[in-house]
Amino acid sequence: ANRIPDGSITWISGRFETVREPEELVYTWTVSTVPGEATLVRVAFRPHPEGTELVILHERFTDIGVRDMHGEGWNGCLDKLEAMLGA
After folding, report:
1. Cβ contacts of 4 within 8 Å, gap of 6 or more
2. pTM for the complete prediction?
3. Which of 8, 37, 46, 86 could disulfide-link to 53, CB 3.0 to 4.6 Å?
4. Of 17, 41, 22, nearest to 31 (Cα)?
């Protein structure tokens, strides 16, 4: 669940379709406030000289506005992860 600044809660659910440790996760993504079919998230963990490279592909969007909203959300999450890891 994600708490929105106005106090409301948005539920995110999905089902893992692929789990290949340690290199890949693939799962469906459904947001309670967004109508339509589930989207698909692919997360790849690749070796990198400084540790691990994280590659995220979120696909199957039918609405450009919803796609862009998710892009902003992913960028915010990754910025917070980078700050937390001190990268």
Report:
1. 10
2. 0.86
3. 46
4. 41
In three-state secondary structure terms, 13 is strand
What's the whole-number mean pLDDT along residues 61-80?
A: 93
Res. 49 pLDDT band, cuts 50 70 90: very high
The rounded distance, in Å, linking the Cα atoms of 59 and 7 is 28
Q: 16 — alpha (psi -120 to 50), left (phi > 0) or beta?
A: beta
How long, in residues, is the chain? 87
Rounded Cα distance between 23 and 44, Å, is: 6
Of 57, 45, 56, 50, the residue nearest 85 (C-alpha) = 50
For residue range 22-34, list pLDDT tens digits in order. Answer: 999 999 999 998 8
Q: What is the 3-state secondary structure (H, E, C) of 43-86?
A: EEEEEECCEEEEEEEEECCCCHHHHHHHHHHHHHHHHHHHHHHC
